[in-house]
Write a structure and sequence with these properties.
375 residues; alpha/beta; Rossmann fold; Alpha-Beta Plaits; two-stranded antiparallel ribbon; 15 helices; 16 strands; 34% helix
């Protein structure tokens, strides 16, 4: 039986967060159950991009501070690191407030710039992951609960994609991102390479709508914790009211028999689940309805059965971030405007995820609009 703890914390005030995380970890045995004196413990927050904490894009610095304190009190040596989607990790750490916390607590900043190849045991045989992630004695995963236009939700398992260094993420989107189920399989297999020892979810203010980079902050007022990242994700989705049919990672984990994927094997403690549920949690655009179709139909009808990114010229500043980050290089600039090669576009929506101005909209294909109109 996998245990997931839920605690009500309604503010990021330091004292409230510290007390909340103390309560959160008690049913799991406290931090001492996970950290021994002298161990090097990597905290892996969500550091997607250089946004301030109020944008709800990244793990809040007060959550990171509280976990650092507990690890240090247990005798651990704390490292904090992640590889953001765009920009240097140092710049992102500064902008998000994490670097200030690292300095004030005496923790170490872990530079996710060097990758080490490791073996996988499933469809994907090789992963190149950040050296500090692989060499830490313990890993504490600190995701932010957010919507995600490709995976519907990003939480504990998806947060581990940050162990892939820099632009190598684009390679994975190119290799697996054209099929949501295949990309979910890759994420689950990456999780199995090096499971976190503990997962603590920042859902005090989550993100709804068109996450993970440009959605809207949503007051949820919760912290979640558990040893199984998969089980934590299952409960997070239940709290947000997201059905399993919209969660490819949950489905893939269940198909593979991963511990924590089945709701019947999860016990929740702390705040009762019925009190934790969020009403009207707004989900992102689901990019298409083509998965499961025969390949020849996918190729012929793809443009009509999918949503696709389109530029909002009033917001776009032509910074080039989307162009540089696009895995299949489907974005260009012509006559002072962004252009899209929709035949090359794999609908991964990395461009929308990383755009600092929220200047990329979603346009639905004609058949997709028609299908939705009959629902």
């Amino acid at each position: 039986m996998n245990l997931v703890v839920i605690e009500r914390v309604g503010t990021y005030r330091r004292a409230a967060v510290e007390a909340g995380i103390d309560r959160l970890l008690r049913p799991l045995g406290g931090m001492e159950a996970f950290v021994r004196p002298g161990e090097r413990v990597l905290l892996k927050p969500n550091m997607l991009s250089a946004k301030t904490p109020d944008a709800a894009v990244t793990t809040h610095p007060e959550v990171v501070r509280a976990v650092i304190r507990l690890v240090q009190e247990a005798g651990g040596i704390v490292l904090v690191g992640d590889s953001p989607g765009v920009g240097s990790s140092m710049r992102v750490a500064e902008k998000t407030g994490l670097m200030q916390v690292i300095r004030e607590t005496g923790a170490e900043f872990a530079d996710f710039s060097e990758a080490v190849e490791v073996s996988g045991e499933g469809v994907f045989r090789r992963f190149a992951l950040a050296r500090p992630y692989l060499e830490a004695d313990k890993i504490i995963n600190l995701p932010k609960l957010k919507t995600h236009e490709m995976m519907t939700m990003t939480c504990a398992v998806k947060n581990l994609f940050g162990s892939v260094v820099g632009t190598a993420k684009a390679g994975w989107h190119l290799k697996a991102g054209a099929d949501r189920e295949l990309f979910a399989r890759m994420l689950v297999e990456l999780y199995l390479v090096r499971k976190p020892d503990l997962n603590i979810v920042d859902a005090i203010v989550a993100m709804e709508g068109d996450g993970p980079g440009n959605g809207d902050p949503c007051d949820v007022g919760l912290l979640l914790a558990g040893q199984s990242a998969v089980a934590v994700d299952v409960i997070a989705a239940e709290i947000a009211g997201i059905p399993k049919k919209l969660l490819p990672m949950e489905r893939v984990a269940a198909q593979l028999g991963i511990s924590g994927a089945e709701r019947s094997a999860i016990k929740t403690v702390g705040l009762p689940l019925h009190e934790a549920r969020v009403a009207d949690f707004r989900l992102p655009h689901i990019s298409d309805v083509q998965f499961g179709l025969p390949l020849f139909l996918k190729n012929r009808l793809r443009h009509y059965l999918t949503s696709r990114p389109a530029v909002n010229t009033e917001r776009c500043r032509l910074c080039g971030i989307c162009k540089d980050a696009c895995p299949p290089h489907a974005i260009g600039v012509r006559d002072g405007k962004l252009t899209f090669d929709y035949h090359a576009c794999i609908r991964c929506f990395c461009c929308r995820e990383l755009c600092p101005e929220g200047a990329l909209d979603v346009v639905e294909g004609a058949l997709l609009k028609m299908i939705k109109s009959f629902k």
